[in-house]
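Whiteboard transcription, Tuesday session. T.W. wrote the structure tokens on the left side:
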């Protein structure tokens, strides 16, 4: 393990999403190609002009949680654009920071017995 790992995979704004809030096996990290041009030549050979910086996509499920746990991360739901995200880059084994947007998360209640109980929620972050 790298000495620079601080015990969490990502922070959205000022909110750390701790490993205890991420459903086991749901976290994924990928750096996709940024293609600025794509074409076939006269011999029908495919060509791609790929930019050096790759686009990071992070997705995970928040666990089923209670109202207290939801309250601890509520700030990540205030905006879905221009999010400052610090993330553990699994390719480089170090923390990096980028600007992301979030697909609108669907928040579902399991029930309201002894307070509100939330179903797992999918979070998808895509770097601009």
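and on the right, the sequence the group agreed on:
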């Amino acid at each position: 393990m790298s000495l620079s790992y601080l015990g969490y995979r990502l922070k959205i704004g000022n909110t750390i999403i701790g490993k205890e809030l991420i459903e086991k096996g749901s976290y994924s990290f990928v750096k996709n190609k940024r293609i600025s041009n794509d074409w076939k030549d006269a011999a029908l050979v495919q060509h791609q002009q790929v930019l050096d910086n790759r686009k990071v996509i992070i997705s995970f499920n928040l666990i089923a949680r209670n109202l207290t746990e939801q309250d601890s991360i509520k700030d990540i739901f205030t905006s879905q654009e221009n999010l400052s995200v610090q993330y553990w880059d699994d390719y480089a084994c170090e923390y990096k920071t980028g600007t992301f947007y979030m697909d609108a998360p669907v928040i579902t209640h399991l029930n309201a017995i002894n307070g509100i109980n939330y179903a797992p929620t999918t979070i998808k972050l895509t770097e601009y």
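Someone added at the bottom: Residues 81 and 101 are 5 Å apart (CA to CA).
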